[in-house]
Amino acid sequence: MNIILLGAPGSGKGTQAEMLSKTYGIPHVSTGDILREEVMKGTPLGEKVKTYMNRGELVPDELVIEILKNRLQEPDCKKGFILDGFPRTLKQAKALDVILSEVGLKIDAVVYIDVADEEIIRRLSLRRTCKSCGRVYNLYYNPPKHDEKCDVCGGKLFIRDDDRPEVVEKRLKVFNEETRPLIEYYEGKKLLIRVNGMNPIDKVFQQIVEKLGLERK
Ligand code: AP5
Known about the structure:
Elements: E1 2-7, H1 13-24, E2 28-30, H2 31-41, H3 44-55, H4 61-72, E3 81-84, H5 90-102, E4 109-114, H6 117-125, E5 127-130, E6 136-138, E7 157-158, H7 165-179, H8 181-188, E8 192-196, H9 201-216
Parallel strand pairs: 1-3, 1-4, 2-3, 4-8
Antiparallel strand pairs: 5-6, 5-7
This protein binds BIS(adenosine)-5'-pentaphosphate (AP5).
BIS(adenosine)-5'-pentaphosphate binds next to helix 1, helix 2, helix 3, strand 6 and helix 9.
């Protein structure tokens, strides 16, 4: 099963991708996570993309398409994948079509997680991420058992640089201008599944699983 999770920043793509990855046993491929790792390691690629990310802008298509292409060639993606944060522009969506058709694959479903802007601002202001294992928390909706420490690995929790209110505002603007047109693109391909992302995490997950099940029949 090859799935795309589409949605505004903070709509819950990463959270749902992790749950789907565990349920279906297929990898969660997040371009945001890959880029953040490069930034943290201080690689030349990380240096190149840092400024775009901290400003809430998109990293140039050419760079992200290359990263994604390489990642999809890794052996774990042979059994399927969940794309989180890619594609984000029409150019990326069309490049993905080409990459997949070259290896005889296709996207089975695109899940659009719909969340109101006010809720996104609230969620991102309270998001905390584990520095060691990347697990995502929310101080209000799914808080860690101990403040500032990861329940799973004990790692330190941090606030993402791009979760500052002024950057979140920019990311929302970029989503509306660059990524929202993909809803229509995938609707046209009869691949789009809409879920109400305003519901609690487990309920959103249930909706996705049910709708993917219906799509697979
Ligand atoms: P990326 O890391 O992809 O960020 P994003 O798309 O902005 O999404 P987020 O990770 O912020 O949110 P999410 O939807 O995963 O929500 P989460 O599950 O964490 O990209 C970062 C940057 O990298 C971009 O700005 C860009 O610069 C660059 N980049 C990445 N990909 C690129 C590409 N393809 N092209 C160009 N540039 C690219 O949830 C958020 C919070 O809400 C958490 O606290 C969570 O616990 C909580 N939560 C989740 N679901 C619920 C729920 N149902 N109810 C209550 N709380 C919830």
